Amino acid sequence: DLRKQARQLENELDLKLISFSKLCTSYSSTRDGRRDRYSSDTTPLLNGSSQDRMFETMAVEIEQLLGKLTGINDKMAEYTNSAGVPSLNAALMHTLQRHRDILQDYTHEFHKTKANFLAIRERENLLGSVRKDIESYKSGSGVNNRRTELFLKEHEHLRNSDRLIEETISIAMATKENMTSQRGMLKSIQSKMNTLANRFPAVNSLIQRINLRKRRDSLILGGVIGVCTILLLLYAFH
């Protein structure tokens, strides 16, 4: 009786898993078709939502069948380990192992198909969100795009102005430093000259005398030249 129940559940699981795999394949194909017809948002969206509900329903049904088959296998294991069937123990263990292998294969296939379905749905949801963002950006008004472009240009102009101002300030600071350095050098030279003049007063007085004699010689030479010129003019007219 337990073997009959196990075979019945295995047949149901086999049919359910085939339908479940077809659902996942058709879901992927529908999503691909939606990608090609993304501008129309009526039928593809409805089909996608109905397939999502069908997926959830079939997943629950398959999980329930797997739970029932697991319970049947546990009952068969208890019967095999019970007393009174020693002569049939080897055959029963072989049958139990075969049913366990079938259960393991069905469980693995179910989880693999479910994981693939969830991965496809998650990827398509992400791509759909990206497409919506792209469409919303493309559907933006030209005025906003123009305004954004003008703002970017104005921002670039402000950055260029700031850079020029910083360069001008740097040049002014360097000029100020050079002038300060030159001023210090001139003050140093003046102080040295004053020190030399104060240290050698005789030299200073000698220089002053030389300057006075030079000025006097210049005056005498000028007077002589003037007198000679006047005499030449008088001689020329007479």
CATH architecture of the domain at 1-30 and 46-140: Up-down Bundle
Task: Enumerate how many helices there are, as a single number.
Answer: 5
The first-level CATH class name of the domain at 1-30 and 46-140: Mainly Alpha
Using the CA coordinates, give the radius of gyration.
Answer: 55 Å
Percent range of helical residues: over 70%
The global form is rod-shaped
The secondary-structure class comes to: mainly alpha
Topology order in helix (H) and strand (E) letters: HHHHH
Which spans of ≥5 residues are poorly predicted at pLDDT below 50? 36-46
> How much of the polypeptide forms β-strand, as a percent range?
under 5%
Describe the main β-sheet briefly: none
Subcellular location: Golgi apparatus membrane
Transmembrane segments: 219-237
GO cellular component, one term: SNARE complex
Keywords: Golgi apparatus, Membrane, Protein transport, Transmembrane, Transmembrane helix, Transport
Description of the structure:
It is a single chain. The protein has 238 residues and is mainly α. It has a domain at 1-30 and 46-140: Methane Monooxygenase Hydroxylase, Chain G, domain 1 (Up-down Bundle). Helix content is 92%, strand content 0%. The protein contains 5 helices and no strands. It has helices at 2-36, 43-81, 89-138, 142-199, 201-237. Helix 1 (2-36) runs antiparallel to helix 2 and helix 2 (43-81) runs antiparallel to helix 3 (89-138). Residues 36-46 have low confidence and may be disordered.
Question: What is the secondary structure topology, with strand pairs?
Answer:
Elements: H1 2-36, H2 43-81, H3 89-138, H4 142-199, H5 201-237
Helix pairs in contact: 1-2, 1-3, 2-3
